[in-house]
Design a protein that fits this description.
single chain; 529 residues; mainly beta; Immunoglobulin-like; five-stranded antiparallel beta sheet; four-stranded antiparallel beta sheet; elongated
Amino acid sequence: YHVSWDWYSEDFDSGSDSLTFAADGSTIDFQVSVAPWSCEVYFYYSIHFVTFQGDHSWMRSESHYIDAPCSDVDYDPADPPDIEVQEVFNGSWSAVTNSTTLDAGTTQLAVNASGLEAGFPYYVQVRAYYDGNLNVFESGTWYADSDSETAYWNITLDGHECDIDIYIEVHVATNDTGWQQASELDLELDGPCDGTEGDSVFRVPLYANHPSLNTWTLVDDDTNFSNGTTPMLWDMSALDDTRYYFHFHAEGQHIYSGYTDEMDSNELFDDGYWNFTIDQFDCELEIWLEIAAVSDVTGWHYFTRNNIYPDTDCVDGGDIALEMQDPDGNWSQYGEYDYLEIEAGTTQMHWALSNLEPGYNYSLEWHYYIDGDWQGYTTREWYAFGNTSGEDWNITIDELICDLSVDAYLYVDSMNGNRQVESFHIYPDAPCEAPFDLDAYHANGTVSEDVESLGAGTTQMLFDFSGMGANTSYYIGYHWSTDSESQGWYYEYVDVDDSDSGGLWWNITLQTHDCKAQVSVDLHSSING
């Protein structure tokens, strides 16, 4: 049989659950939470017969309304609870204050909340941070049946921890406000700080059952994994019965994200067990875990992320270099991001591939941009008989081109599918010749075409668009600067008339102590807007 049920206590709480069982006459027990002011509790259940094929056949459903206390009670926030913390020291209890120093090992602590109002629901929460990292999260909910309540918990230190911060909160639920914080206590304690090396991050132990060893061993940065699939286990015994949210990746793959009480419903991750599969091209392994304690009252509380970087025996998979033939017919090889100049015209290029792993299918994909315009992908596929290969191609540009970028990616078909083993990026210098002349009209009446030097004073300048096409229109932005001054950006529309002449006049001023002047231009054709 399969039974599911849900309940709702008026103005306070709700819950649901389900159970598949074999009928033996025993009862199914569960708890509901009822506030003093709740007047009724709604309850609904539905029962199904489960066939041998796992199908559910509905049998019956029922709902009930059950009377609740319905008390007219008021909470007095003017007299909040007091919080005290004690520790067991030399066999007896003593007060914990900001002057307390905790020793290495396990110390039992007690939190006492007094001044409670009977009948009201309370929630207490304890968080302990070791050197800024959340390590302890404890919480509990109860109905006050006296004016005080004590909760016990432990804090365990290895010895290297120096700063221990403890934050304690007491919350109360009322009919008017729901859950609200009633009191808090913050403690800044000294840890052992014994000078030993250690990691103050709370860690959920990870174990691997290496096929070669056939035994579960703890995984750390020194662990070495072989190619293939290794059974893995996150040791959940490090966690208490708090509800946690688990999220982890292994070698770039998302394995699981969800709540710890839902793990057995996930096929890829069952109660902490999962499989880690790598191939010979995995060289930089990373496993990381994010974990948060989830409170219905105060929300999510994240622990510091667990990062593990194990070792593995791997092969490189391949390297990419770019070869270029210069105008004299000589070939030169360039590595990623090397300085490279490409002249106007068609330039012969060659991809040089090395350190390939023979016996695998490879593919090389590359593309390039010319002044920001994508030129499309080119792909080559082959079976590697040796550890080198290559591919010829060419690139054609004119003297006006300013920006070039070339990107290549090498892939191999491995046991984990088609994967990238190398990438290559390079940004060659292009001719970037201006399509216009920059002329200077000097005070003495002389004109310098494509001017290269200027004297002190103000000089009239011309962006000469003659020869750029009759009846064309351009949008130009320009900026100039000297050692002593900077002007612009300025923007103008410029028309070239039917006689193929036109341009833009402007002025630049240099002081006698200026050693250089720089002009920057951004030019767009505005024929099509």
